[in-house]
Amino acid sequence: MTTLNEDNPLDVVILAAGQGTRMKSDLAKVLHEVLERPMIEWVLRAIEPLNPRKIIVVVGHQRDSVRARCLDVAAKLELGSRIEFALQEEQLGTGHALQCALKGAQPINNTLVLCGDTPCIHEDSLNRLVQAHFSTEATASLFTTEVDHPFGYGRIVRQEGNVYQIVEEKDADDEQRKIQEVNPGVYIFSSGILETRLSALENKNQQGEFYITDLIFDAATNGKVHSSSLSCEEMLGVNSQVQRSEAEDILRKRIITQWMHEGVAISMPNSVWIGPGVAFEGNAEVAPFTHLSGECHIGQNARIGAHSSLRDTTVAEGAIVEAMTWTEHACIGKGARVGPYARLREGSHLEEGSKVGNFVEMKKTTLGVGSKASHLSYLGDTTIGRNANIGAGTITCNYDGFNKHKTSIADGVFIGSNSTLVAPITIDADAFVAAGSTVVKDIPRDALAFGRASQSTKKGYAARLRKRLRKG
Ligand code: UD1
Ligand code: CA
């Protein structure tokens, strides 16, 4: 039995020169995003585990943007040194695309060919085909799929049970058009057939194209064809926005199912978006209509409330994100609580056991251990120590019309409701700012600060502060 190894390397060709007219978009088809990744990235990720010797992407339409994006992805996947591009100036058919890919290639290896617009193809299926190709010593191997509506696909014509030929819709006769077994467009060709037959392809067909599928007929006639079946879901090729969303749904469900198997409790999974960069550590709970995207890390026993949207956010163990919360580049510490209706912008850091309540907006702000900002606040460019209380309606005025300035609020500070803190400003430990104050000067440790609006309540505050200090 022959297997994939050093002496038997595998090359991969990805066909991506087509225009994708039906996407009705200026963006190259394979660059359209499906569940947060360009289609071609899904394909590159599916072939990466096969450890191909090289990957040749056939580009044509919008070659520069396709090339650039592929290089980005390849670098991320550490495939950088193995990716190459072949230009197909004119799209004369899939066979011609393969000719362009292998022009001048030395040596020619067994080659897996697939399309850049099939994002749902799974690495396990590809691996299965590769193993079967080598173990059966096939001249060519391919997937086939039974579909309800075969229109538009190449039909699989069998003889004595074996794949004999693929006939395109436009070339098929009435009998052949009834065949429901179709060609998903994934093949492995042995080096032999590529060396001897690829250049001999002809374009004598209804479309005047060079068909890659003619190599299958050749292999069936002169060698051996192996075929395996592929699910309808995995073979889905994206040609329109409708199919793009279908592919997205397939991938989304695949990811959600995988997390549920890992013990994550996801309610109404059909309403939930979990991107491919999200990771859970254990038994978290995810409520309906939540949207977790980018690189999110969700800790043990964390709870994500309904309709919340988290991007690039870490939620530590036991933290609770209540409904309708919106976060981006934020970090929610162990046992912390956020929302409902909170907005944590980039650089929001909630330390252990802290609390952010409704209608609080934070940006580049750290809320220390056990501190609270429970209602209606804007906290920007601010550092808040431990066990501080930020009263309802507190606003940090971080912007003077030209520059952003910082606010520093030390441990144990109490900021009364509706206070306005004009940055740059420091409020030292255990200071007490009375409700309604506009604070423009630094406040020393243990001091009692009053804004104009709160002068009349000075006596009451003084008594409360004394009590607080006594309590220590
Ligand atoms: C091809 C198959 C058909 C199969 C179908 C699956 C042939 C002759 N037919 O159909 O049996 O059922 O795929 O989707 O191969 N491309 C190029 N250069 C070209 C032509 C195509 O790079 O000159 C790329 C496209 O960008 C696309 C892929 O090849 O990624 C498939 O092309 P498409 O035109 O969609 O497929 P068909 O030729 O119609
Ligand atoms: Ca075509």
Structure write-up:
It is elongated and about 100 Å long. 22% of the residues lie in helices and 29% in strands. The relative contact order is 0.07. The protein has a 23-stranded parallel beta sheet that branches. A hairpin with a 2-residue loop joins strand 8 and strand 9. The protein has 472 residues and is of the alpha/beta class. It folds into 2 domains: 230 residues, Spore Coat Polysaccharide Biosynthesis Protein SpsA, Chain A; 230 residues, Hexapeptide repeat proteins (UDP N-Acetylglucosamine Acyltransferase, domain 1). The site of uridine-diphosphate-N-acetylglucosamine has 27 residues, from strand 1 and helix 3.
Average pLDDT metric: 95
Instruction: Work out the oligomeric state of the chains in this entry.
Output: single chain
User: What is the end-to-end distance?
Assistant: 79 Å
- Poorly predicted runs are none
Estimate nothing, just give the exact number of structural domains.
2
Strand tally is: 38
Q: From the 3D coordinates, which CATH architecture of the largest domain would you assign?
A: Alpha-Beta Complex
What's the name of the CATH homologous superfamily of the largest domain?
Answer: Spore Coat Polysaccharide Biosynthesis Protein SpsA, Chain A
